[in-house]
From TrEMBL:
Protein name: Cytochrome c domain-containing protein
InterPro entries associated with the record: DHOR
Amino acid sequence: MFRSLATLILLAPSLALADMPPIEESELQPGGEGTVEPMYNIDVFALPAANLGIIQELDFQFGSGLFRKRWQPLDEGNYRMDGLGPLYNTNSCLFCHIKDGRGYAPDGTSFETSYEVVSMIGKVGVPADGDAYMN
Protein backbone atom coordinates (compact mmCIF):
# COMPACT_ATOMS: atom_id res chain seq x y z
CA MET A 1 0.00 0.00 0.00
CA PHE A 2 2.84 2.38 0.84
CA ARG A 3 4.41 1.75 -2.58
CA SER A 4 1.11 2.57 -4.34
CA LEU A 5 0.71 5.76 -2.33
CA ALA A 6 4.30 6.84 -3.06
CA THR A 7 3.81 6.16 -6.78
CA LEU A 8 0.62 8.20 -6.80
CA ILE A 9 2.31 11.11 -5.01
CA LEU A 10 5.18 11.07 -7.51
CA LEU A 11 2.89 10.87 -10.54
CA ALA A 12 0.37 13.50 -9.40
CA PRO A 13 2.34 16.54 -10.68
CA SER A 14 2.84 15.00 -14.12
CA LEU A 15 -0.85 14.13 -14.34
CA ALA A 16 -1.75 17.72 -13.46
CA LEU A 17 0.61 19.04 -16.16
CA ALA A 18 -0.88 16.69 -18.75
CA ASP A 19 -4.25 18.37 -18.25
CA MET A 20 -2.91 21.91 -18.91
CA PRO A 21 -4.05 23.68 -22.08
CA PRO A 22 -1.41 24.33 -24.75
CA ILE A 23 0.56 27.60 -24.64
CA GLU A 24 -1.00 30.29 -26.82
CA GLU A 25 1.14 32.33 -29.23
CA SER A 26 0.36 35.56 -27.36
CA GLU A 27 1.93 34.09 -24.22
CA LEU A 28 5.25 33.72 -26.02
CA GLN A 29 5.30 37.44 -26.86
CA PRO A 30 3.75 39.34 -23.91
CA GLY A 31 4.98 42.65 -25.39
CA GLY A 32 3.59 41.87 -28.82
CA GLU A 33 5.97 42.80 -31.63
CA GLY A 34 8.03 44.78 -29.10
CA THR A 35 8.98 41.68 -27.08
CA VAL A 36 12.76 41.46 -26.72
CA GLU A 37 14.95 38.37 -26.73
CA PRO A 38 15.98 36.88 -24.43
CA MET A 39 12.73 37.65 -22.65
CA TYR A 40 14.01 36.48 -19.26
CA ASN A 41 17.15 38.64 -19.18
CA ILE A 42 17.67 40.31 -15.78
CA ASP A 43 17.79 43.73 -17.49
CA VAL A 44 14.94 43.09 -19.92
CA PHE A 45 13.17 46.37 -19.05
CA ALA A 46 16.30 48.36 -19.91
CA LEU A 47 16.31 47.05 -23.48
CA PRO A 48 14.64 48.90 -26.38
CA ALA A 49 11.53 47.32 -27.89
CA ALA A 50 12.36 44.85 -30.65
CA ASN A 51 10.24 46.67 -33.23
CA LEU A 52 11.80 50.15 -32.95
CA GLY A 53 13.18 51.80 -36.05
CA ILE A 54 16.70 53.24 -36.14
CA ILE A 55 15.60 56.78 -35.19
CA GLN A 56 13.33 55.49 -32.40
CA GLU A 57 16.15 53.34 -31.03
CA LEU A 58 18.48 56.36 -31.01
CA ASP A 59 15.79 58.29 -29.10
CA PHE A 60 15.54 55.40 -26.64
CA GLN A 61 19.31 55.31 -26.12
CA PHE A 62 19.43 59.09 -25.60
CA GLY A 63 16.63 58.89 -23.01
CA SER A 64 18.33 55.96 -21.32
CA GLY A 65 21.52 58.00 -21.09
CA LEU A 66 19.64 60.87 -19.43
CA PHE A 67 18.05 58.40 -17.01
CA ARG A 68 21.44 56.99 -15.99
CA LYS A 69 23.29 60.34 -15.92
CA ARG A 70 24.66 61.60 -12.62
CA TRP A 71 23.27 65.11 -12.50
CA GLN A 72 25.17 67.98 -10.92
CA PRO A 73 24.02 71.32 -9.49
CA LEU A 74 23.55 73.98 -12.14
CA ASP A 75 26.85 75.11 -13.61
CA GLU A 76 26.87 78.54 -15.18
CA GLY A 77 29.13 77.27 -17.94
CA ASN A 78 26.76 74.59 -19.27
CA TYR A 79 23.00 75.10 -19.02
CA ARG A 80 21.98 72.26 -21.34
CA MET A 81 22.88 69.20 -19.26
CA ASP A 82 22.94 70.41 -15.65
CA GLY A 83 20.36 70.14 -12.92
CA LEU A 84 18.90 67.79 -10.37
CA GLY A 85 15.85 65.53 -10.11
CA PRO A 86 12.45 66.95 -9.17
CA LEU A 87 12.86 66.18 -5.46
CA TYR A 88 16.56 67.14 -5.25
CA ASN A 89 17.18 64.05 -3.11
CA THR A 90 19.80 62.26 -5.21
CA ASN A 91 21.87 62.79 -8.31
CA SER A 92 20.39 60.24 -10.74
CA CYS A 93 17.00 58.87 -11.77
CA LEU A 94 18.40 55.35 -11.52
CA PHE A 95 19.05 55.65 -7.79
CA CYS A 96 15.30 55.72 -6.97
CA HIS A 97 14.02 53.92 -10.08
CA ILE A 98 16.15 50.79 -9.75
CA LYS A 99 16.18 48.55 -12.83
CA ASP A 100 14.30 51.25 -14.73
CA GLY A 101 11.51 51.24 -12.17
CA ARG A 102 10.95 47.48 -12.17
CA GLY A 103 13.29 46.63 -9.33
CA TYR A 104 13.13 46.94 -5.58
CA ALA A 105 12.83 50.00 -3.38
CA PRO A 106 16.14 51.71 -2.57
CA ASP A 107 17.43 50.73 0.85
CA GLY A 108 19.27 53.96 1.60
CA THR A 109 22.60 52.25 2.13
CA SER A 110 23.99 52.75 -1.37
CA PHE A 111 27.36 54.39 -1.83
CA GLU A 112 25.59 57.05 -3.91
CA THR A 113 23.95 58.71 -0.94
CA SER A 114 24.65 59.42 2.67
CA TYR A 115 21.02 59.79 3.75
CA GLU A 116 18.53 57.12 4.75
CA VAL A 117 15.39 56.51 2.68
CA VAL A 118 12.57 56.99 5.19
CA SER A 119 9.42 56.83 3.07
CA MET A 120 8.11 55.84 -0.32
CA ILE A 121 4.86 56.21 -2.25
CA GLY A 122 3.52 53.58 -4.59
CA LYS A 123 0.23 53.40 -6.47
CA VAL A 124 -1.21 49.93 -6.91
CA GLY A 125 -4.32 49.21 -8.93
CA VAL A 126 -6.70 51.40 -10.92
CA PRO A 127 -9.74 53.46 -9.92
CA ALA A 128 -13.10 51.69 -9.80
CA ASP A 129 -14.12 53.23 -13.14
CA GLY A 130 -11.15 51.49 -14.78
CA ASP A 131 -9.42 54.67 -15.97
CA ALA A 132 -5.78 53.65 -15.53
CA TYR A 133 -4.52 56.96 -16.90
CA MET A 134 -6.54 59.26 -14.65
CA ASN A 135 -3.49 60.75 -12.92
